[in-house]
What does this fold into?
Amino acid sequence: MSGAQLYQGPEGDYLARWKRIHQIDALVRKGDFPSASRLARACGVSTKSIYRDIEAMRSELRAPLEYDSSRKGFRYAGAGYQIPATALSERDLFALMVTENAVTQYEGTPLAAELRDAFDRVLATLPSDLRARHTVAARAVHFAGLPPTPIAPVVWNGLVEGILGRRRIEIEYFTPSRGKSEARTIDPYLLVVRDREWFLVGRTQQNRHYALFYVPRIRRLKALADSYEPDPQFSPERYFEYGFNAMHGEGKPKEVELRFEREHAHIVEERAWAAKQTVTKLRTGAVLVRFQSNTLFEVARQVLRFGGAVEVRKPAELRREVLAQAERMAEQHRGKVSR
It folds into this structure.
């Protein structure tokens, strides 16, 4: 059985399981007969997971792990055992590398540094030849995109603690259209990341309304003594059901119909515009895509992103908004270019 099979455990967490195998190995190697419960506490998992890992080490890594009933713990039978380098295949190394490089998606938050530190600890457990191969593989994938907006560590930590601890928070939130910050008291529910930018879904105390906040606009955050009981009816799926591109809107959803001429049909054929959409291919080769949304402002942004490749057919208000924005852009770009 290969190492790739070893790390496809029920937890579904390749990196965590690989780290756990090395933690077990290090603790057993000390020779003080750690019990399954002690290993579970050290690794932060259940004893059931530890027994699964030990069985995998015995069967797949040929680890001579024995349970000493008199010492009530595990030991290696004999000296000199090492976890074989073949436990990681080339595909395993590539998967590890991709996961590590994905940390760049969290730049701008304290989470990026914490994840890098965790990866450094995992990589330190690898034999030197595997670390060298990992370094080569790490150059094979690059996560690109616009740089993320930084988030103050005190804000990030306050949001995480508030969500995990179900603690109410008070924030000073800047609204560009008003040009000022306002105090809001909210129950923090959910962090959403889109294109390396972070948003918070929170229930406001002012009107008990679920709102979407752009995290970098939180100027100040204060944890309150009050705890809150989450609404059992709330679900991210329902909240974003008629949203668009991870944005949320209010009101009754409207039917959106977009037309892509034949030379631009690939824009919708290669990637869906909505989770629930219908696509119709016309005899001319043009394509119509239809879906429902109450977040027309975000649909307009996406349409404008593709310039003249997309035509809004419905609803009329969305068509008017795209036209107004396009005319404004045309006016801004007329005339001589300033030097």
Observations:
- The CA atoms of residues 170 and 222 lie 5 Å apart.
- Residues 153-239 form a domain with the SH3 type barrels. fold (CATH 2.30.30).
